[in-house]
Design brief:
It contains 13 helices and 13 strands. It is of the alpha+beta class. Helix 6 packs antiparallel against helix 7, helix 7 crosses helix 9 and helix 8 packs antiparallel against helix 9.
């Protein structure tokens, strides 16, 4: 069979020859017969079919990175990763590792099915990828694309809280992205964002907020900035009852892996109490298993704090 002439520019040929995941059509453009491609992709052969029309030029088990790259090649120019794959590359640690179809965003006028291995979402709001190894949706878009498809409220809380905690986006940016996108699957993320806009920054704090809603206590501020009359900044408590200067700390074991972390918690407590602040500590599991006891303890602490003169401590809402 005569070899076909190249249908690609020299720079495209160089790029293709350095790639490990390519389109069948690109190999044909280099003169590789289709029959040869399929023979090399048979079991035991040197290549592997990853997606319809997409070939990996190695025969090892495909890694998640291989599946991501194949999905992007399959989806075509301008496609960007979103959802869990994008979140993992963004550095999010508390979301589930990606395991199902690779979620990509593509132009609204393009159609790709994905053979069950790619979730191709057409959108009129295709984000422009940042420079880097991977074309990624912004963190606010990626996390909400995941949350809209999750039915697990705790996972949604964890993902949105971590996105804000990492400084990758603000609650306002998340709310703007939620309003701009599809309304399908937005009810739970919107409810969780209401918590976050109110200052809640973790799943444990969200549970604490639920406990307080049924406790009949004044609504606290969440994660406020505390200052003394002289302007000295104090440790930021999880919840703050400003009427009586009562701090509530939700002590998750996640943040006490070593002696240094424990010492920092003790120092926080000592510093706040040295300025007359009443501090209550609660472990997260108590919010689920001993709610009534937690409420009773808070009520007693609130009543006790009301008996002493309120210290001159000023609080500002989170983000202000």
């Amino acid at each position: 069979m005569p070899r076909r002439s190249l249908a690609l520019a020299p720079d495209q040929v160089a790029t293709l020859c350095s790639a490990t995941i390519v389109r069948v059509s690109a190999l044909e453009s280099l003169g590789v017969p289709r029959r040869t491609i399929y023979e090399r992709c048979r079991p035991g052969g040197p290549w592997r079919t990853l997606l319809p029309g997409i070939v990996g030029l190695t025969n090892g088990p495909p890694t998640r990175d291989d599946r991501r790259r194949a999905a992007l090649v399959y989806a075509g120019p301008g496609a960007v990763l979103t959802g869990l794959d994008a979140l993992q590359i963004h550095g999010m640690r508390r979301v589930p590792p990606p395991s199902g179809p690779v979620h990509v965003l593509i132009p609204h006028d393009r159609r790709r099915l994905g053979a069950g291995q790619v979730l191709s979402e057409r959108t009129e709001r295709l984000p422009r990828a940042r420079p880097g190894r991977w074309p990624l949706a912004p963190l606010s878009r990626a996390v909400l694309d995941f949350c809209r498809r999750s039915r697990d409220r705790e996972q949604i809380r964890t993902a949105l809280a971590e996105a804000v905690q990492r400084g990758g986006c603000t609650p306002g940016e998340l709310l703007g992205e939620l309003n701009a996108g599809s309304h399908r699957g937005s009810a739970v993320p919107r409810s969780v964002l209401t918590e976050i806009v109110g200052g809640v920054r973790s799943v444990a704090e969200a549970h604490a907020r639920e406990v307080l809603l049924a406790a009949g206590l004044p609504a606290p501020m969440w994660n406020p900035t505390l200052r003394t009359a002289a302007g000295e900044i104090l440790p930021c408590p999880d919840a703050w009852f400003d009427d009586v200067a009562l701090a509530w700390e939700i002590d998750s074991v996640e943040f006490h892996y070593d002696v240094a972390d424990y010492e920092r918690t003790v120092e926080r407590h000592s510093r706040m109490t040295s300025y007359g602040i009443v501090v209550v500590h609660t472990v997260p599991r108590a919010l689920r298993s001993r709610r009534s006891e937690v409420v009773d303890e808070l009520r007693r602490a609130h009543a006790l704090a009301r008996l002493r003169p309120r210290p001159d401590i000023h609080a500002a809402a989170a983000g202000s």
